[in-house]
Amino acid sequence: MLMRTDPFRELDRLSQQLMGPGTWSKPSAMPMDAYREGDQYVVAFDLPGVTAEAIDIDVERNMLTVKAERRPVTKGADVQMELSERPLGVFSRQIMLADTLDTEHITADYDAGVLTLRIPIAERAKPRKISIGVGSGHKEISG
Prior knowledge:
Elements: E1 2-4, H1 9-19, E2 28-29, E3 32-37, E4 40-46, E5 55-60, E6 63-70, E7 89-97, E8 107-111, E9 114-120, E10 129-134, E11 137-142
């Protein structure tokens, strides 16, 4: 039900890791998992060290966009950085949602550096019974 919008995203992610932090005009990729759980899809994004206030989620038509920013921690004047491997800057991910998902009722939770979105399957996409009128009676069949 989820489709990637860019088949070269992994290649972009690797090159961005080598080229430095993401910017608003050219954000870095963020890792994610997506799976179906009952009557909803769950999408989980890894955003360690990002505050909930620095995360922006929006849906336009069927395009879901998640952006986040991790800023450097301010250090005192007497601090000398010895090693800095944790990625900083802007992170973004866009995924195309299928028409069968209910984008009006997406919920978001952020815990332990993981942003979890739950997207219900639209009622119109769920299997349902359809009754057929035969003469004066009706018979239910699977639809």
